[in-house]
């Protein structure tokens, strides 16, 4: 295993666990945030990137302003939410969701449900990454010392 392999394993694991957490907590609609997850690595490290929507999945939306109505309407369609009353339109339903968020915040923000466990997922995997890199360095040093001692 190389450092690059260790980083690839780390990022693949983090991405997989984020997607699992989204599914387990019902924090999915269109799947665009999950699909946006990507990573890149080089000799000095790596970087995980994704949609800015992850912020809202982690901390929720605080009360204050209305979200863009079109975004809420699309979210309702993506989630497959239908009004209980057939006379209620998607636009009306979106207004009700939006008003609730503007006055109270989202359920994640007010603590009614858990947000995405991003920090916990990264923390759990970082210790595995550090262990893998430490093993690599021990092997590297051991190989170097053996070569020096046999000269």
In spatial order, strands of the major sheet run: 1-2
Number of helices: 7
Structural class: mainly alpha
Number of domains: 2
Rounded mean pLDDT score: 92
| Extended strand count | 2
Shape, per Cα inertia axes: elongated
Write the H/E string, N to C.
Answer: HHEEHHHHH
How is the biggest beta sheet arranged?
2 strands, antiparallel
Strand content: 5-15%
- End-to-end span in angstroms? 27 Å
Write a compact overview of the structure shown.
The protein is mostly helical. Helices cover 64% and strands 7% of the residues.
Overview features:
mainly alpha, 64% helix, two-stranded antiparallel sheet, 151 residues, 7 helices, 2 domains
Topology (elements, then pairings):
Elements: H1 3-25, H2 32-36, E1 38-42, E2 45-49, H3 54-59, H4 69-79, H5 90-104, H6 107-110, H7 118-149
Antiparallel strand pairs: 1-2
Explain what the structure shows:
- There is one protein chain.
- The protein is mainly α.
- The protein has two domains: 1-58 and 116-151, no CATH class; 63-104, no CATH class.
- Helices cover 64% and strands 7% of the residues.
- It has a two-stranded antiparallel ribbon with strand order 1-2.
- A hairpin with a 2-residue loop joins strand 1 (38-42) and strand 2.
- Helix 1 packs antiparallel against helix 7 (118-149).
- The longest helix is centred in the C-terminal third of the chain and has 32 residues, at 118-149.
- 11% of the residues are buried.
- The model has no long low-confidence stretch (mean pLDDT 92).
């Amino acid at each position: 295993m190389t450092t690059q392999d260790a980083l690839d394993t780390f990022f693949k694991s983090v991405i997989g666990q984020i997607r699992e957490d989204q599914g387990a907590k019902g924090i999915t609609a269109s799947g665009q945030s999950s699909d946006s997850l990507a990573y890149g690595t080089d000799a000095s490290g790596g970087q995980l990137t994704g949609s800015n929507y992850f912020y809202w999945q982690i901390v929720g939306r605080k009360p204050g302003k209305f979200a863009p109505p079109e975004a809420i309407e699309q979210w309702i369609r993506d989630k497959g939410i239908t009004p209980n009353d057939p006379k209620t339109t998607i636009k009306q339903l979106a207004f009700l969701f939006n008003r609730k968020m503007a006055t109270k915040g989202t359920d994640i923000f007010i603590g009614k449900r858990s947000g995405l466990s991003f920090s916990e997922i990264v923390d759990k995997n970082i210790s595995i990454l550090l262990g893998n890199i430490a093993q690599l360095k021990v092997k590297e040093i051991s190989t170097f010392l053996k070569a020096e001692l046999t000269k």
